[in-house]
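Tutorial sheet, problem 5. The two components below are modelled jointly, 523 residues in total.
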Amino acid sequence: MITLHLNDQIIKSLSRPELQILQYAYENTETVLDMSIQQLSSQVAYSPATVLRFCKKLGYSGFAEFKYALRAELREKGRNVSTQSSQTFTTGMMIDTLSSNIQATSTLIREEQLNQAFHYLDSGCPIYLWRPGGLTAVVVEYFEKLLLSIGRQEVYMIESEKMCEHILRSRPQKCLLILISTSGKFAPTIRLGKIAQVNSIPILSITPYANNEVAALADVNFRFFTDQRENLGAEFTSRLPIFFVINTIVQCYLRYCQTESRIEKGGGHDPAL
Amino acid sequence: MIPLFEKARALPLTETETAILAYFEANASSIIHKNLQDLCAQLYTSNATIVRFCQKLGLSGYNDFKYQLRRELRQSAAPAFYSDEYISREMARFKDTIAALDIRQLEEITELLTSGRPLYIYGTNLSALPARYLQIVLNALDYPSILIEWKNLLNGLIHNMHDDAILLLISAKGQAGNYLLPFQTARERGLTTILLTCERTSPLIPYSTITVCTNDASEEFHHTDVNPRLGFFTVIQIIIELTARKKRDL
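Model answer (structure tokens):
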């Protein structure tokens, strides 16, 4: 059995399921090293999202890095662990982290949240998307373009914070505000969320898995896993999980609408869907 | 038939409840996606009436009813929409994308993108988004590039690009004919071209230096392209990770 060097604070912060995962990893280190996050999660009977949260609590970027730390610890103990060339190992590790972030994100999407989103999309109310700068702008625009492409009318992307504020304050009828934040901490986004809340405008948000202010303001909140990164102030956190969430919302809505209209028309089952 | 409705029909129902039942039967597949408030508005009745109806069926309330109905609909293979099925299919597609990737090829592309040679990234319509995503991240990692979103600009630029320029073109499906001419010109001029597409038989492939083909399915809705291009974003994300690693190792 091996042990990782974790400080008391981290150990104290672990919940009971997380402690059980840790214990399992200590007792079955060599098996865990060959497992994917899905395999481990089915062994310990907790969701991949819980396993990933556990890895992050321990201070690792994801499951791959957790395994890397276990492997390093085993090696330290002088055991014979299969070694690969560092180049291919890190590439594998990188792809593993990427996949486990997506996998875990997909398990966070709940039917109930989708239904709430469908409710706003169905209602035909105006939808305002707040588009901050940088990389998140690309994600917001992806949402906007997909919504328009599937025939949803009244989708407006607002690029100016002041304009957005103006609309939220003066909007007499029902509408929906969509906020996407990669950190959940971006001040202008939080501010707009608060203005919307004061004016009782519902908010749909997409934010990181951890508790954050933007999520707390939202009526419907979709969450994702990603690792925050930057290069001397220029941030390049992966948006892939957010693209995945947006695509899921839009494609599910499209299929939901198609099922509805087919039943209304009394048509048969379309195998393509 | 749905056992839940059969059971309801056998119960002594009030007039309103009979109407509720008729509505449920007619709209079974959409009920499972509706909340109680919307339903009341449509039925012109109060929450309490619907909850009482559900309780008459021996269920704790409306949510319990929805859950039970969903299970029975699924068993009867009724045409309804189940998001978990879609999500697991989408996950499987994502894993296929990952499994089909040629990492060595992506490493080769990363070498080209970070070589310091003039770099042009092209994408238009929905493909402009993956193009812009890559361009912004490359900028953040100190590898500048030029983003082209207009077809005419590409047609003009291709004649004037530097001889050692690299052109990365992102095009899903069906638009390839538009780029035949610029790609032919690029080939004649000896420029390096990288093609990211999901069309296996794209006429551009013979002219491109490196081709990456993903398994994105082309989808249309009322003649509008709604292919979500997740495969493109995945490939680009991996190129980004490789670039970030290279930057770190420097």
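Marking note: Strands of chain B lie at 119-123, 146-148, 166-170, 192-197, 210-213, 220-221, 224-225. Full credit if you identified this.
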